[in-house]
Write a structure and sequence with these properties.
By secondary structure, the protein is an alpha+beta fold. It contains eleven helices and 29 strands.
């Protein structure tokens, strides 16, 4: 059980926001006692307490002003004596305004700050609603910008505003670094049928939400890495100045794989819009990673859902739909994320997938199961770009006894690789190196599809498993799954996503 909350009163003036950053070792409770307040477009219930799970970073905003009660961090019971060892207690704070901080559970909330982006988000929503009312198809909105500038918050805000008007837009998450819907390394599409609610967890599509019968099941795809760009080593504690100074470069191979998976996501979105009138009229909201190349052609390619063989259009025009590039004010309260927080958030997102938002929060926890599965029921593959040696031809010849023998000629031409790197699926056998890996369970129609990089990229992910151990003597994996049951013969993807259990 969590300790009882100790509240501090906070008044948020009109068009102001209160930044809240919850330690990973604690829960923060919020209560709106007068006026109207919202988190990313989701209104807070009046006179009801909501609990923000560990690791939450959000802003409580008000258009008309409100009075809040904000609790001190409510440390999780088993961490009461070791809170200083947790990154949340060490580097994150209860409530913040820009870079102001509260370093302990005895600190008081910071002062709210003015946010001119509130009115801009409301005006953008009104403009999108005019498009929905006047066109047969809803708008396609792609939000791009620097890292830690508030893109994901704006995407959730626009989805929540549309949901208030009985719209059900598609939230398209193309950000495997800082995902909104699922775990790091994934991309996803989710119809917004229930508000994006910060009190439900860091992700909008983790299994605990589905288990409670709210929200919609997302369509998941696997990219396999939690980074897209090569950044200089960030400082332990980031600031807006250091974040701006650290230039990022796109890794070419990761970019190719990213575009391959993003194209598969876009194709799925097209099919959904073609078959679902509700989604088609509501439109889509696309969230992409920060630090993408500042080139309009790249963004148009991201928004385009045509055949991947089609060249990137040189002009800002997609078919009959013009592309409007609209500058949007940076969220003044957005705080640069240091690498410690980024790492802990990634670990916590994976933990949230298997265990829920927190065992201390009623209705938000799961009871995961460990199962032993023989390795021969899985095929594990990873997309790789490397020089592939050609397969030597097999020559059949008849021996003296009349039997047919197959031989491989030993010729220099057959032994030399082509020298040209090619994309292919690398088969990963059962080894100890798979321990601590998070693997997606893929849906592939035929075994032959396993060798096709494009078909693997387009395969839907039905869930994830965590390899906690490998028993070499029994040739079995010890797998953690969020629900009880057994796994059938299936295909598992692989990547660079690792998870280490933390208290």
């Amino acid at each position: 059980m969590l300790p009882d909350p100790v509240f501090d009163p906070v008044t948020v003036p009109l068009l102001h926001e209160l930044r809240v950053s919850v330690p990973f070792s604690a829960v923060v409770s919020i209560k709106c006692i007068s006026g109207l307040a919202e988190i990313a477009g989701r209104e807070l219930p009046e006179s009801s307490v909501i609990d923000l799970p560990p690791g939450t970073r959000c802003a409580i905003a008000s258009f008309q002003g409100c009075d809040l009660l904000v609790s001190r961090p409510r440390l999780r019971p088993k961490l009461l004596s070791t809170a200083t060892a947790d990154v949340g207690a060490a580097t994150t704070v209860t409530t913040t305004s820009h870079d102001a901080s509260l370093s302990s559970s005895e600190s008081e909330p910071a002062e709210p700050s003015f946010n001119m982006g509130l009115a801009a988000a409301a005006n953008l929503h009104a403009a999108l609603e005019q498009v929905r009312a006047s066109a047969a198809a809803g708008p396609r909105v792609l939000i791009s910008g620097p890292a830690d500038s508030g893109k994901s918050t704006l995407a959730k805000t626009l989805c929540n505003y549309a949901l208030k008007l009985q719209r059900q837009p598609l939230l398209v998450d193309l950000n495997p670094e800082n995902p909104t819907i699922s775990i790091p390394g994934s991309m996803a599409v989710q119809p917004i049928t229930y508000p994006c609610d910060a009190s439900l967890g860091l992700a909008t599509g983790h299994p605990a939400i589905m288990a409670n019968g709210i929200g919609s099941v997302p369509l998941l795809f696997w990219y396999g890495a939690d980074t897209l760009v090569d950044r200089p080593l960030a400082p332990l504690v980031a600031s807006s100045e250091t974040a701006a100074a650290a230039e990022a470069t796109v890794d070419q191979e990761r970019w190719e794989q990213y575009l391959r998976v993003a194209t598969a996501v876009a194709t799925a979105v097209d099919e959904k819009l073609a078959s679902d009138h509700t989604s088609r009229t509501a439109g889509i909201i696309v969230d992409v990673p920060g630090d993408l190349p500042a080139d309009l052609d790249y963004l148009i390619h991201m928004a385009d859902t045509s055949d991947p063989a089609k060249p990137i259009p040189p002009a800002p025009q997609l078919g009959m739909t013009p592309v409007h590039v609209l500058p949007f004010p940076r969220n003044p309260g957005a705080v640069a994320k240091d690498r410690v927080y980024r790492r802990y958030r990634s670990l916590h997102l994976i933990r949230e997938y298997f265990y829920g938002a927190g065992p201390e929060l009623p209705g938000k926890a799961l009871t995961p199961h460990n199962i032993f599965a023989p390795t021969n029921i899985f095929w594990i593959g990873k997309p790789t770009k490397s020089v592939v040696p050609p397969v030597a031809p097999v020559v059949a010849s008849e021996a003296e006894d009349g039997k047919v023998e197959e031989t491989v000629p030993d010729t220099p031409a057959a032994a030399e690789p082509s020298g040209v790197p090619e994309w292919h699926m690398e088969t990963l056998g059962p080894t100890d190196s798979m321990v601590h890996s998070v693997l997606p369970v893929l849906t592939l129609g035929a075994k032959a599809d396993r060798t096709d990089v494009d078909k693997v990229a387009a395969a839907n992910v039905v869930g994830f498993v965590y390899v906690s151990a490998y028993d070499k003597a029994r040739d079995k994996y010890n797998l953690l799954v969020p629900f009880p049951g057994h796994l059938p013969r299936t295909t598992l993807g692989a990547g660079s996503i690792k998870w280490f259990e933390l208290s």
